[in-house]
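Hello, quick one for you while I still have it in my head. A protein chain has come my way and I'm curious about its shape. Can you walk me through what the tokens say about the fold? No rush at all, and the record is pasted right below.
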Amino acid sequence: MRQIPNIITLFRVFAAPVAAWLLAQARYREALALVILAGLTDWFDGWAARKLKASGKTGIIFDPLADKILLVVLFVELAVIHLIPLWMFLLAIIRDLVIVVGALLVRIFRNVHKFVPSIWGKISTFFQIMLVLMVLLDAAFPHRLLSALRLTALALSGIFITVSGIGYIRRGIEMARQPALPRA
């Protein structure tokens, strides 16, 4: 029973390539439905973990990793099929790479093991998710209003990816300037 939340989380990992395949086949409505279902599982696995008192290290790591896998796969496929511009894809991927490399360097050279997401990072993720949803909605049900919402989500995603990226770089520089923590 305690593994149910992790099994639910695993659904998002398996949903990622299926959603990419649906997008490649121009089956936008099915891809949209799958992405919405995956989003619901993100809420449901957290609820199940609390209800079953089953939150542990695996879920703490696996849940955000599953979210990131789904989001990155969707960004890659949306860029490949030209539903998001290449600059947006590159901005998001470069920011994530800078964060991962910076965290790795701070871990190696300063022995820092805890990296808490910033509020700007959470806002950025929210708008990236909104961008994916607006792109899928506009592709599945083309309409001027949805197109305007897609462009708004694109602009806000770009702004918050940039702001959060700068914030993470500043935080990484501050961490790098601190003395190394003692090794355990």
About this structure: Helices lie at 4-24, 28-51, 57-80, 86-110, 119-140, 144-177. The CA atoms of residues 19 and 31 lie 5 Å apart. The radius of gyration is 18 Å.
